[in-house]
Amino acid sequence: MEKSVTFRSSLLPWVLIAPQVLIISVFFFWPAAQTLIQSFQQQDAFGTSVQWIGLENFRNLFNDETYPQAFKVTAKFSLLVAFFGLTLSLILAYFADRVVRGMTFYRTLLIWPYAVAPAVAGVVWLFLFSPSIGVIAYWMRRVGIHWDPLLDGDHAMTLVVMAAVWKQISYNFLFFVAGLQSIPKSLIEAAAIDGAGPWRRFWTIQFPLLSPTTFFLLVINIVYAFFDTFGIIDAATHGGPGKDTSILVYKVYFDGFKALDLGGSAAQSAILMTIVVVLTVVQFRFVEKKVNY
């Protein structure tokens, strides 16, 4: 029997959601509107001289050779972070769900990285793989592997991807563990009685039932790779070497705060926000069709 709630006053629902609407308006809609307005303006670093120039910032942006490169770097980076982040966290969640003794201890260890700030995560991984003082880089040289993320673009991309995946893996792990625990154990036991091995039980029963969780985490990880990895890249590589790890959000920061091109930076922010919204809509429109609820 479905339960329904009836409000005696038509104003009460609006009063209840008013605090959340106020927070979203102040910290999202108002800055987004300001960014959109600034993308059509040209101003100095102090905002004392403002000139309306229309679409000139957008035209200059697409004539910039480094902007298409930032698109490619962002696409590569986000796909790698989402794929390895979801894959590794699902594997860890699967084995953690099978642990009987010390289950809380293992899960606590796997959750800890989420409490680390992105900039700190970038610094930690930079120290580990620094070609001069890094512990892991030292042992890589001992076995004949040349590693230098300060000069090699592929090495730098590998470094920031590993740091970003490590930082997000705890978040994914929590949701996958919760999803695995929500699957009725009777289904797994029935499949085991029928002779299905662990891999077959996971692939035919558990993984399909995890599709809502996987879809949710896919959206979250794409958004995370686009926005929340700025601190990691700024601390570890500063977008270098060259522009090999300069994703779109880092280019917005660099052009706005380093090059002092506030109008061009605002135009990039508007485009970046549009890309994320379109990607989210596409995922809900097409990917969600394969989700089993």
Summarize the structure in words.
- The chain is an all-alpha fold and 293 residues long.
- It has a single domain (62-290), classed as Orthogonal Bundle (MetI-like fold).
- Helices cover 71% and strands 2% of the residues.
- The chain has 13 helices and 2 strands.
- The chain has helices at residues 12-38, 56-62, 66-98, 103-111, 118-129, 135-142, 153-182, 185-193, 198-209, 211-228, 230-236, 248-258, 262-286; strands spanning 41-43, 50-52.
- Strands 1-2 form a two-stranded antiparallel sheet.
- Strand 1 (41-43) and strand 2 form a beta hairpin.
- Helix 3 (66-98) runs parallel beside helix 7 (153-182), helix 3 (66-98) crosses helix 10 (211-228) and helix 5 packs across helix 7 (153-182).
- The longest helix is centred in the first third of the chain and has 33 residues, at 66-98.
- The relative contact order is 0.13.
- The mean pLDDT is 87.
- Belongs to the binding-protein-dependent transport system permease family.
- It is found in: Cell inner membrane; Cell membrane.
- The complex is composed of two ATP-binding proteins (UgpC), two transmembrane proteins (UgpA and UgpE) and a solute-binding protein (UgpB).
Task: Give a nutshell description of this structure.
The chain has 293 residues and is mainly alpha-helical. The protein has helices at residues 12-38, 56-62, 66-98, 103-111, 118-129, 135-142, 153-182, 185-193, 198-209, 211-228, 230-236, 248-258, 262-286, and strands spanning 41-43, 50-52.
